[in-house]
Amino acid sequence: MENKQDKADNQVPPLGGGGGSFSKSECLGHYKWGDDCYGWNYIDTEALSVKQELMPPDTAEQLHYHEKANQVFFILKGRATFYIDGVENVLKPEQGIEIKAGQKHFICNKENSDLEFILYSSPSTKGDRINSPLTP
User: DSSP alpha helices (H): ranges in the chain?
Assistant: First the structure.
């Protein structure tokens, strides 16, 4: 017989900042961006955004910055090349990097295999992305 505590332990809170578990198959939303790149939203609140993204070989995003959001990228698979304020940084799996608000940056995958990473943004980057036509 199930007691109240067992029932409470088995309930999964809702996604989107509600404290629940998540995965690629159980996420807030799946999206496509850039040149055949993909993403999965796991937490999406004004204070925090957590996403997983996949970049195929030879893809890059546009140089940009955020006025308010600080971001942390954590590499899961592949090698990521970041340009932050004109400086190149190459990360391998199990390495991360912080990008502060105001820093011009972009990530690219120069490798022959997929790049996957977790992206944390605080606060959320909704409405806080300024693309730059300049090259790094």
Answer: 4-10
Q: What is the mean pLDDT of residues 66-81?
A: 98
Rounded-to-integer distance, Cα 79 and Cα 97, Å: 13
Distance CA 34, CA 72 (A): 20
List Cα–Cα distances, 106 to 25, 27, 36, 66, 73, in angstroms. Answer: 27, 25, 16, 11, 11
The fold of 25-131 is Jelly Rolls (2.60.120)
Q: Where are the domains of the chain?
A: 25-131
Kindly list the distances between the CA atom of residue 128 and the CA atoms of 22, 66, 74, in Å, as whole numbers in the listed order.
25, 5, 21
- Residue range 17-41: average pLDDT? 89
